[in-house]
Write a structure and sequence with these properties.
about 200 residues; alpha+beta; five-stranded mixed beta sheet; 5 strands
Amino acid sequence: MEHQISVKRILIDLISILPQIHKEFGDHERYKELITFLMAKDYYNDDEIPYPTLKQVSSDTHLKPHYIRKLLKEVYEKLFDYNFSFDFTKVEVYFYVDYLKRYASFKCKNMTNMPRIGENITLSFLRAKVGTDYFYVVDIRHYFEHNKQLIHIHLKGGIYNSYWYHRKHEALEKRELSYHDLIDDYDYQLKKKIGLKHY
């Protein structure tokens, strides 16, 4: 079955990288009015501003709805024809720390070495806040938006155990644990659920 591309979804997708769309297409006479309208408000970052509807875009720009659809589809397709190069050179790294329901988060810049899943990390400056300075990386997620790459690194207190990492994911595949369990429970609770002794 052929995948139908939603114009509404295209609009949201383009807004998520709007600075790059503006830089590439903003001065092009064909797209200028549409992109100028989209740049007027921060739809992506301001939760108080709802995404515009095609009707609203048409009303404010005086462009016909079918023409707006055509422009949006054209710009979207141009992103994937290899003549367009995405630019996510701005990098922001965020750490999210969790230890026995005590949490901390902080932002880093200019990191030359990025930690990987399973690596142990000592963060002495967090001991007073969360009660330990020993952590390990449990998840890394990359977000690409506007003109930034955002890297979110999730840490848990303790020391990485490769056996437990694999056993936990095996339990997930065997449905001994759910994704909800992995998010909400600590390792000692998960081990109890699958019958492993916790010392």
